[in-house]
Amino acid sequence: MQSGQTPCVVIAGRPNVGKSTLFNRLVGRRQAIVSDMPGVTRDYKEGEARLGGRLIRIVDTAGLEEAAPDTVFGRMRASSESAIGQADLILFCIDARAGVTPADRHFAQFLRRQNRPVLLIANKAEGSAAQTEVYESFALGLGTPLAVSAEHGEGLSHLMREIADRLKGDEKDAPDEAGLSLQDRDASDEAAEAPIKTGPLHLAIVGRPNAGKSTLVNALLGAERMITGPEPGLTRDSISVQFRDQKGDVQLVDTAGMRKKARVEEKLERISVSASLEALKMAEVVVLVIDALLGVHEQDLQIARLIEREGRACVIALNKWDAVADRAATMKAVSDRLEISLAQMKGIPVITFSALTGAGINKLMPAVRQVHDIWNCRVSTGELNRWFEGALERHAPPLVDGRRLKLRYMTQAKARPPTFILFGTRAEQVPEAYRRYLVNGLREAFYLPGVPIRLQTRGTKNPFARDSQ
Fold it and tell me: What domain range is 454 assigned to?
């Protein structure tokens, strides 16, 4: 580990020994999907924990299995080995109830060859029944095992102390409670008066299964971070990674494919979709990946409408564009479908690319940054009301119950997404058609394409009307 870097602890072991449960315990929240079904974790997942007053990066990996490199399990093992290669400490988990298996012996031998410190964890060791098997794990040659039960929380405090002790370095290299090493404190004090930098842009990649989301993430990162292949549904959990584009940091989340709700039957898929929805809600910008060969399906539109309801900015990404025969006809069909079925996000940007070859990938992040700026846009009250007066002159408010609405002025309440408040007598009775007229006018006049626009109303109270009792 280099000076100043956050130490990395990687949890490894064969499938279904409780690695994800232990990961959730260490990071302090249910961040990884947990299931009794073996092989749930596929891409390695990262989280942060503070142990012994020090920030530590915890990595949950897929189960180690012997498999051909071109199979799903072979790709999962390659992903796990990639994570192990950057570890400062490996937590090798075995199932204390099952005892030491031939697979455990095989992978213990593999880990010994990695020349990295290993801490042997005998998980599922609740009660006295598993104690015999815990002692048998000495035979793996990885030192004294720590008996824990991640599911029941037993032995975790001892484990956390042991991890902190194993990662202790020189005091000058160890971060203090603020996450800064001693040699960095002077630099941080000098920078204390500098402007506070904004956080990373939160970007989620969503879409139907097999649309190419993980391949797109790998293309953006320039590395094989996510497991990809022709099999649909490879990604099961939401995986968050960071990278930098030309304008700054980006927190990127790859999500599991979302099928129609009626077709989601397995419990594991329901959990995966739930994690995808949570990632969508936490994002600022959402990239909706669509298979250009299949066109825009109803499920794609349902996901887009969900993005709009959550108030997120959106970019449509047409993948596999290199395989499209008639590009002009395909683009026209997509544009017509979006204009008819997604009018509430009129002008949404559409990017064409091939995640597999990388052609057109460079167009995506500029479009994401642009729509993010629009999503954060603010309009001055004076400029807004000058437009509003013109809008009233061009198309006066309709009669409601034989009486004309008196709309007085408008202001922007907030951005992210742009939200406007309309004030006037009985403004809450403005018909939906007139609301759409105002929203479309706002979108066109102040250049707000591709983002949701919220229009709220505030009626004025008649001071001469007696309150009904």
Answer: 381-459
